[in-house]
UniProtKB/TrEMBL annotation:
It comes from Naasia lichenicola. This is ABC transporter ATP-binding protein. The chain crosses the membrane at residues 23-44, 64-84, 138-160, 166-185, 254-275, 281-307. PANTHER family: ATP-BINDING CASSETTE SUB-FAMILY B MEMBER 10, MITOCHONDRIAL, ATP-DEPENDENT PERMEASE MDL1, MITOCHONDRIAL. The lineage of its organism: Bacteria, Bacillati, Actinomycetota, Actinomycetes, Micrococcales. GO terms for molecular function: ABC-type oligopeptide transporter activity; ATP binding; ATP hydrolysis activity. Its main location: membrane. It is found in: Cell membrane. Residues 589-613 are annotated as: Disordered.
Length: 613
C-alpha cells in the first residue's frame, strides 16, 4: 500500500484492541499505577520547595526530619508502584502474544494453498516470532510508558508554570522543536523499519531454504554460493539497520541537546529572577527538580516513538496475513454424503494458476472424466501437462474456475471441507512427514483408527520396516522424516492415505521412490485395497499404469481418451508417445544406474501388452 494511503499510526495500532481486550483491566490498572508513580515523583520537588522555603528559611530543625521522611516515603512508594506496574502488565501481555500467534497459525492453516505458493515461509516465520514479540514488548512497556510519560510531562509542565510562569513558558516554548524533530523522524523511520522487518523475513527464508535443502547444496558443492547469497542479504539488512540506527541517532541528538540548552537558559533566567527577588530559592530548586524529573520522560519520547513505529510496522505485517481472505471455505448450507459410494466426476472443469500469463490457455481446459465407484483410473500425460494439478482440485487445495467436480453426484463445493477431506485421501510423490511418532504420522487422517487398521495400512504400503525402528511405532521421526529414506517416507505417506479409509484415494505418483521389488509388493497389496476404493492415480511409470482398470489421457488440458491400457496402446498415438517417453525416462534412469531393474521391468510390461494388443 502506498505510504500516503496507509492509515495513521493510531488507527493501525487500534487493530490490536480485540486481542488486547481481555487484558485491558490489568493494563489500565498498570497504567493508573504507573501514572501514580509519575505523580509521586513530581510531588517530591514540591516537598523540596516547602523544605527550602519554610523549614530551612525558618531554621526549623524539627521540621527537617518529617520532610525528609516524607521524601523517603514518596521515593519508596514510587519504587513499589513501578514494581506493581510491571507485575500487572507482564502476564496479560504474554497472553495477548499467545492469542495473536494462535490466531495467525489457525489462519495460516485455513488459507488456501495458493496463498502459501505466494508467501515465502521465512516471511511468515518472522511475522509469527519477531513481529509478535515486538508487539508484546510494546504493549507491556512502550504503550505504558508513552501514556505514563505523556501524563507526567503534562502535569510537570503545569507544575513548572505554576512555580514560575515565565520560566515555565520559556521551558515549554524551547521544548517545541522536539515535536518537529519527532515528526520528521516518524516519516523516515517508518519506511526504514518496514524495510528492515521485510529483509529480516527474507533472511529467515534464506536460512530456512538452505537448511531444508542442505543435502542438495552439499551434493552440488553449492554451499559457498548459498553463503554468498546469504551474506549479500545479511549485508543489505545490516545497511538498513545502520540507516535505522542513524535515524535514531539523529533524533537522540536533538532529544538530548534541546533539553540541555533549555535547562541552561532556564537556569540563567531562574538565577536572575531569584536575584531580583521575583522567585524564591525554594521555587527555583523545585523548578529544576521538576525539570529533572521530566528529563527522562521527555528524552524517552524519541525512543518510545521509534518503538511505536516499529510496532506499527509489525502490526501492519501481522494484519497483512490476517487480512488475506480465505477463498476456500465451507458452503453456507452444506450437504452430506449419507451413503458414500465413491463416484467421482469432472464436468467441463477449467482451472488456471492465478499467476499464469494471460496468453496461455487454461491449464485444465475443460476436463470431463467419470470414475465409477471402486474403479481405479490412471491419469497419464506429458510432464507439466497438469496431472498433479488435477489431483489437487479433488480435495479443493485449489478451487476450480468453472465446471464442477462431484462426489456421488454432489458438487464438492457443497460439502464441508472436513467431510470432503475425510472422504478423499491423498498421497503425494513428495512425501511430507511431521516431527511426530510413526503412529501419529500414519494416523494423521484418522487418529481414532485402531491398531488393526494401522497394521493393515503399514502392510499394504510395505512399511513394516517401522517395527525395526528403535521405538517401533512410537519412534519420533525427524523433521519431515528426513532420517528415513525417500522410499521409506513414500511408503509411510501411502500408509497414511490408506489408513484414512477414504471412498476416493488420490495418489500422485506415490511409488516413484520405491525399488522394483518393493513396488511390486506394494502394488499387489494396493490392488486389494483398490478393488473396493475409487482411485485416481497419476502414473509416471508403466508399471503404475498396470494397477489401473482404465487410463485417462491428459492432453492440452483435456482428457482426450479413456480406455484400457492395451486399447489405448493400439489406438492412441499420443498415449503411445507418452508411454514411450516414460519408458525413455526409465531407461535413462537405468543407464545412470539408479533403478535399472525397474526400467527393464517396465519395458517388459509394455512389450507384453503390445504383443497382446
Ligand atoms: N503452485 C503453482 N503455481 C503456479 N504454477 C504452477 C503451480 N504448480 C504447478 N504449476 C505449473 O502448472 C503446470 C502443470 O504442473 P503439474 O505439476 O500439475 O504438472 P504434472 O503433469 O503433474 O507434471 P509432472 O509430470 O512433471 O509431475 C506446470 O507448468 C507448472 O509450472
Amino acid at each position: 500500500m502506498p505510504a500516503d494511503r496507509r492509515p495513521n499510526t493510531v488507527s493501525a495500532l487500534w487493530r490490536l484492541l480485540p486481542y488486547a481486550r481481555p487484558a485491558l483491566p490489568r493494563l489500565i490498572l498498570g497504567m493508573v499505577v504507573g501514572i501514580a508513580a509519575g505523580l509521586v515523583a513530581l510531588a517530591i520537588p514540591q516537598v523540596l520547595e516547602y523544605l527550602v522555603d519554610t523549614v530551612l528559611a525558618d531554621r526549623n530543625a524539627a521540621g527537617i526530619l518529617p520532610a525528609a521522611l516524607l521524601i523517603l516515603g514518596l521515593g519508596v512508594f514510587e519504587a513499589a508502584a513501578i514494581l506493581v506496574r510491571r507485575t500487572l502488565v507482564l502476564t496479560p501481555n504474554t497472553h495477548i502474544e499467545a492469542r495473536m500467534r494462535n490466531a495467525l497459525f489457525e489462519h495460516l492453516q485455513r488459507l488456501p494453498v495458493a496463498f502459501h505458493d505466494r508467501w515465502p515461509s521465512g516471511q511468515l516465520l518472522s511475522r509469527a516470532i519477531s513481529d509478535l514479540s515486538a508487539i508484546r514488548r510494546w504493549l507491556a512497556f512502550g504503550l505504558m510508558l508513552l501514556v505514563v510519560n505523556t501524563v507526567t510531562i503534562v502535569v510537570g509542565a503545569i507544575l513548572l508554570i505554576t512555580t514560575s510562569p515565565l520560566l515555565g513558558v520559556v521551558y515549554l516554548v524551547m521544548s517545541v522543536p522536539i515535536w518537529f524533530v519527532g515528526a520528521k523522524f516518524e516519516r523516515t523511520y517508518t519506511l526504514v523499519a518496514r524495510r528492515s522487518q521485510d529483509q529480516t523475513g527474507d533472511l529467515a527464508t534464506a536460512v530456512e531454504e538452505s537448511v531444508h535443502g542442505i543435502r542438495v547444496l552439499k551434493a552440488f558443492g553449492r554451499g559457498g554460493h548459498a553463503l554468498k547469497k546469504f551474506e549479500r542479504q545479511a549485508e543489505e539488512l545490516r545497511g538498513t539497520e545502520l540507516e535505522k540506527a542513524s535515524a535514531v541517532a539523529f533524533v537522540w541528538r536533538w532529544l538530548i541537546l534541546i533539553p540541555d540548552v533549555t535547562f541552561a537558559v532556564c537556569l540563567a533566567l531562574g538565577v536572575v529572577l531569584a536575584a531580583q527577588g521575583s522567585l524564591t530559592a525554594g521555587a527555583l530548586v523545585a523548578f529544576f527538580a521538576t525539570a529533572t524529573v521530566l528529563r527522562f520522560p521527555v528524552e524517552s519520547i524519541g525512543f518510545l516513538l521509534s518503538f511505536t513505529l516499529d510496532t506499527r510496522t509489525a502490526t501492519d505485517r501481522y494484519f497483512e496475513v490476517m487480512d488475506e481472505p480465505n477463498t476456500i471455505t465451507d458452503p453456507q448450507s452444506p450437504r452430506t454424503l449419507d451413503q458414500p459410494q465413491g463416484l467421482l466426476e469432472f464436468r467441463d472443469v477449467h482451472f488456471r494458476y492465478p499467476d499464469a500469463p494471460d496468453r496461455f490457455a487454461d491449464l485444465v481446459n475443460g476436463v470431463d472424466l467419470r470414475i465409477e465407484p471402486g474403479e481405479t483410473m490412471a491419469l497419464v500425460g506429458l510432464t507439466g501437462s497438469g496431472k498433479s494439478t488435477i489431483t489437487a482440485l479433488v480435495t479443493r487445495l485449489y478451487d476450480i474456475d468453472s465446471g464442477a467436480i462431484t462426489l456421488d453426484g454432489v458438487d464438492i463445493r457443497d460439502l464441508r471441507l472436513d467431510e470432503l477431506r475425510s472422504r478423499v485421501a491423498m498421497a503425494f510423490e513428495d512425501a511430507t512427514l511431521f516431527s511426530a511418532t510413526v503412529r501419529e504420522n500414519v494416523l494423521l487422517g484418522r487418529p481414532d483408527a485402531g491398531e488393526e487398521a494401522l497394521a493393515e495400512a503399514l502392510r499394504i504400503a510395505q512399511a513394516q520396516f517401522v517395527h525395526d525402528l528403535p521405538d517401533g511405532l512410537d519412534t519420533v521421526i525427524g523433521e519431515e522424516g528426513l532420517s528415513l529414506s525417500g522410499g521409506q517416507r513414500q511408503r509411510l505417506a501411502l500408509a497414511r492415505a490408506v489408513a484414512a479409509r477414504p471412498s476416493v484415494l488420490v495418489l500422485d505418483d506415490p511409488l516413484s521412490a520405491l525399488d522394483v521389488e518393493t513396488e511390486e509388493l506394494v502394488e499387489s497389496a494396493l490392488r486389494h485395497v483398490l478393488a473396493s476404493t475409487t482411485a485416481l492415480i497419476v502414473a509416471h511409470r508403466p508399471s503404475t499404469v498396470m494397477l489401473a482398470d482404465r487410463v485417462a489421457v491428459l492432453e492440452d488440458g483435456r482428457i482426450t481418451a479413456v480406455g484400457r491400457h492395451s486399447e489405448l496402446l493400439a489406438t492412441n498415438d499420443h498415449y503411445r508417445f507418452v508411454i514411450s517417453s516414460l519408458d525413455e525416462e526409465r531407461k535413462t534412469a537405468a543407464a545412470s544406474g539408479s533403478d535399472s531393474d525397474a526400467a527393464a521391468d517396465d519395458a517388459a510390461v509394455i512389450d507384453a501388452e503390445e504383443v497382446r494388443a
